[in-house]
Amino acid sequence: MTTSDIPRYRINGVIDTGKPVMNNLENIANSAGSWITYDITEGKWAVVINKIEASSHTFNDSNIIGAIKLSGTGLDSLYNSVETQFPLRDIGDDNDFIRIEIPSVDRKPNEPDHTLTLNYPLVNNPIQATLLGFLELKQSRIDYIIEFSTDYSKNDVLAGDVISVTNATYGFTNKLFRVLQISEQDSNNGLEYKIVAMEYSDTVYTTTDLVYYERSNIDGVITIGDIGKMATPTVTKTLTDRKPSVLIESTIPDNTDPSNQAGIIEGVEIWYYIIPASELPTWETVDDEARVYTLHSTVRPFGETYASGAAFAHSISDFDENNILIKLRAVNAVTQGPYSIRSGLVEYVPKQTTDNITNDTEVDAGSGNILTSLGASALISFLNSLMRDGNSGVGSMFEKIFDVFDTKEGFDLASPSIKKLGIMPTGSPMIIAHTDSHTNTSVAQSATSTSFVSVYTSANFSPDVTGTYKIDTIIDQNTSGAQGGRGTFFSEDTDQIVFNVKIRDQTTGGSVYSEATGGVGAFYWTDFATSGLVTLVSTKNYKVEITMINYTESIPSATASVTLGYNIYTI
Predict the structure, then answer these.
(1) Confidence (pLDDT) at 410
(2) Are the C-beta atoms of 297 and 248 separated by less than 8 Å?
(3) Do 117 and 242 share a domain, yes or no?
(4) CA atoms of 233 and 249, how far apart (whole Å)
(5) Of 279, 419, 503, 533, which has the maximum CB count within 10 A?
(6) Is residue 506 domain-resident?
(7) In sequence order, what DSSP letters do the residues of 8-71 get, joined into one string?
(8) Per-residue confidence at 357, pLDDT binned at 50, 70, 90?
């Protein structure tokens, strides 16, 4: 048998010009194992090829906000064969089809037949039709969907990117998913990004792990049996947090009890009951069978079914303050098991809090740490005016305190060399290297949506000591031409407001720190903040430079007025 190389994808068919352009583009992309997406960072439409990719972003507890939602395909919805329809060129482009089936040895236990039907009117090559069928069939069998929210630092994630997720609750360690959808959402924590992604596996893109497949029209239905009883749930409360929640844990029946066999479990229902005041404090004496529980949600497994004896865990963050009881019930597409024994009393009194503001707090859309630092500096400056320099033991109470500190710590708080010293609430010293505020009332328009214009340049400064410093910056738009335009994808003008903060080494001319914030869709009232760490050397001179992309198609002639402030201090 001879072999030859052919293009993996080639389009050969008739385009219906009467259909919308986007429909035709998506039809072409589907026929080439790809999809169309809009790249908000480039402001252009892009093609994402469904192929083997390496992870481009990592997510874990440090950048996932709130609970993770994970769902999978039920056993009765799992595809194990595909019928690919296409016009075959060998018979004058008359309709033909290829049917591919997963052999019984590769199927799940008790898996019923289920055929996925695909139609590719722009493909007339049977090999290409077979490859597309393989791709869709194998992808459907690992079709687990993850949903979670992340912060603004991940605004460069694009649809089609492969990401890795690590989460101890679900037992994930760098588990791979391909991003399907990204959307912005406002929350009490500021701007967040909601990511919906599908499980990813390299094996989808090869045929080496598949064996002989034969065409067949046989259909069959396999009965799904009884389901066992879930173990009594335990509930762990996280009451004081930026997103308070309860963690519900239980165990799938393990088949060791003949009267409580696991069966086929495709999901676990979570039921809850709000205890009224009339049942308190003797709620345990009330007949639980008489209570009416409410279904909160149905949790799907990582695979098609839960394994017998497997651990079950699910987090809920949308309960209001109440006294709550929890029950669980295992289900599949045909039937459901008995309710579990109710949990103990869950006295849920959530208290939503922000992260504590400390020296290590990152400034995002708020002003927390920079105000703390500037306030401490102002306070120390005021106190310093009440105290004379020197370490004589004679004089006011303040002078005596300074003398004691000089004796214990080896330096004078009032000496000129540390005039910028402040004392943080924890008692640790903080040195202000440089701080300033400035208003620029006439920032010019940028020539393009990617070109920066100057806003501010500081005078030269040199830190008192060599070390790691933190720079916090707040930028307030007073006026600009930005009207919230999100660009051509939304059939709107492009209004892009971006600020870049740099610290430049005057000795070498190079940048030792650079941080940017902003993007498309800004309004003239949108404010910005940056925060980061930088190493400064006491023998060198530095300058702070702040530039801006002021590109507003809504009002293209408008200049911008901004007020900025920054603080550079030790941590």
Answers:
(1) 58
(2) no
(3) no
(4) 5
(5) 503
(6) yes
(7) S----S---TTS-HHHHHHHHHHHTTEEEEEETTTTEEEEEE-S-----EEE-TTTEEEEEEEE
(8) low
Q: Identify each DSSP E strand in 168-207 by its residue range.
A: 172-187, 190-199
In a domain, residue 229? The reply is no
How much is the pLDDT for 91? 63
* Per-residue pLDDT reduced to its tens digit, 317-339: 999 999 999 999 998 877 778 88
Within 13 Å of residue 166, how many CA atoms lie on the same side as its CB? 10
Residues 471 and 325 in one domain: no
Cβ neighbours, 10 Å, residue 108: 15
Question: Is residue 391 in some structural domain?
Answer: no
Is the backbone peptide bond immediately before 301 cis, with ω within 30 degrees of 0?
no
> Which token pair is 531?
């925060």
Last residue of a domain, one of 302, 325, 352: 352
Contact 235, 347 (CB under 8 A): no
Q: What is the dihedral of CA 481, 482, 483, 488, to 10 degrees?
A: 120
Domain that holds residue 313: 234-352
Whether residues 135 and 268 share a domain: the answer is no
Mark which of 352, 369, 385 sits at the end of a domain: 352
Is there a domain that residue 376 lies in? no
List Cα–Cα distances, 448 to 159, 481, 497, 519, 548, in angstroms: 25, 15, 12, 13, 12
- Residue 199 shares a structural domain with residue 290: no
Using a pLDDT cut of 70, give the percent of the chain over it.
80
**Cα–Cα nearest to 340, from 271, 263, 255, 265:** 271
Is there a contact between 265 and 299 (Cβ–Cβ < 8 Å)?
A: no
Q: What would the DSSP string read from start to end of 494-555?
A: BEEEEEEEEEEETTT--EEEEEEEEEET-BTT-EEEEEEEEEE-TTS-EEEEEEEEEEESSS
Regarding whether 316 and 273 lie in a shared domain, the answer is yes
- The structure's pTM equals 0.39
Q: Which amino acid is at 278?
A: S
| Gap between the Cα atoms of 167 and 524, Å rounded | 39
Residue among 571, 347, 406, 325 at smallest CA distance from 472 = 571
Mean pLDDT on 227-245: 89
* Domains in the chain, number: 3
Q: Which residue, chain included where needed, has tokens 């997963």?
A: 102
CATH of the domain at 448: 2.60.120
Of the pLDDT bands very low, low, confident and very high (cuts 50, 70, 90), residue 380 is low
- Return all residues near 289 (Cβ < 8 A) that are at least 6 apart: none
Domain co-membership, 123 together with 165: yes
The string over 193-224, giving b where at least 16 C-beta atoms fall within 10 Å of a residue's C-beta and e elsewhere, is: bebbbebbeeebbeeeeeeebeeeeeeeeeeb
246 pLDDT more than 80 = yes
DSSP 456-503: EEPPPB--SS-EEEEEEEEEEEEE-S-B--B-GGGTS-BEEEEEEEEE
